[in-house]
Amino acid sequence: MHPNPLFRSEDRELQEMLIDQIGFGMVFCTTPDGPRVAHTPLLSTGDGAIQFHLARGNALSRHLDGATALVTINGPDAYVSPRWYDNRDTVPTWDYVALELEGRVRKMDEDGVEALLHALIERHETRVEGERWRAEESSEATWNGLRKGIVGFELEIQARRPTFKLSQKRTDHERERIALGLELSGSPALAHLMRTLAK
């Protein structure tokens, strides 16, 4: 988390939207073999927990149950050029959105993992253009093969550390120029957040 309090937001609805829209993140945990990270789809339960699954053979899978872990969700990010400032006698920076969630992890039971998989499929298939795919299209052998190969986890969120670094230290005029520059250089999502959140 960035140390400047100007870049923090305690808006829980905004944080939940970020988890929902991104839907993917990284799980970090210290293990007897050293620090490890896994990349995984994420699903908020809406009541203070986040669920995910990992391959059974993942280096983290055998260490997470009962451990304290950190989940990070990275939103849009981009380089910010000094050419967009009123005074070019400065240095470049990077604007970004990120959310860190820390908490105790528990291994999910088989019913919980099944529900998680169906919830993830439902969530993401509705976002894909065209005819939706359904889990029932998998044969029993295919589905059971998937299920045997993964482990589900739920992290009970005990700390939230959001960063919304959106050039808040700049004037309104500069922020609009930065947003336009970001749009033109291929970062429209960050430009949109700058215009809507950094006011």
TrEMBL record:
InterPro entries per UniProt: Split_barrel_FMN-bd, TR_PAI2-type
Protein's name in the database: Negative transcriptional regulator
Source superkingdom: Bacteria
Pfam families tied to this protein: FMN_bind_2
Coiled-coil region list: none
Lineage: Bacteria, Pseudomonadati, Pseudomonadota, Alphaproteobacteria, Sphingomonadales
